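HOLO CASE FILE
Compound: zinc ion
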Amino acid sequence: MSHGASIPEPNGGSQSAWLEAPGLSAVRGLVHGFTTRAAGSFSAGPPAGWPAAAGGRRLRLLRQVHGAAVVGPEHPDPLPEADAWAGRPPPGVLLGVRTADCVPVILCHPRTRTLAVVHAGWRGTAAGVVTSALEALGAPRQEVVAAVGPAIGGCCYEVGPEVVRALGPGPWATRAGRRWIVDLRGRVEAELVRAGVPPGRIERVGGCTGCGEGFFSHRARADTGRMLAFAGWREP
Ligand SMILES: [Zn+2]
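Model generated. Tokens follow.
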């Protein structure tokens, strides 16, 4: 994991405003990141100071509903109802999704410059949002570069059996008495691999939002803040 721009903290230190995936950083012209608490909350849109950090680029967001709908950057609605973007945004436009504990995923096909940015909570994952985004990307799966951002980890994500029923059994779900511990990022990564993305092209970025430092977590701290996962192409 590498780090994006730093934002000064009140105590005089500084924390990276976003985290980057080395595999995506290596893609020429790509701008991407998974923001941390230091960038501020995106729950009501971009926080103060963000436009400067993002180089003044235009940020497009979604009205997220934990479904599997995917929209393209040409969608006329300023805030489309969907949980994933897929397509080829014009240079200077960033596609974003907002998460606290859900899994943010960025997919990139460098040759055709197509991108997908996905919000995958357990409901959306069970509904197939990851595979829907890959299909909408329309690129050869073995050439896709993927990054799975900060999300609630297998250390902290305790759920009822209904969640495991929805996600399906697998190594991502471990029984703990009447409850289950789920590694949602593991489930998302397994789905990418099953769909044909090579495991060596899938990177996990950042830690657990529940017990890790520097993240918003709805489950662990009842935060209302949201982090941003974003991707787009640099201006020529
Ligand atoms: Zn944790």
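CASE NOTES: The chain has one domain: 2-233. Confidence is low (pLDDT under 50) at residues 7-13.
CLOSED: yes
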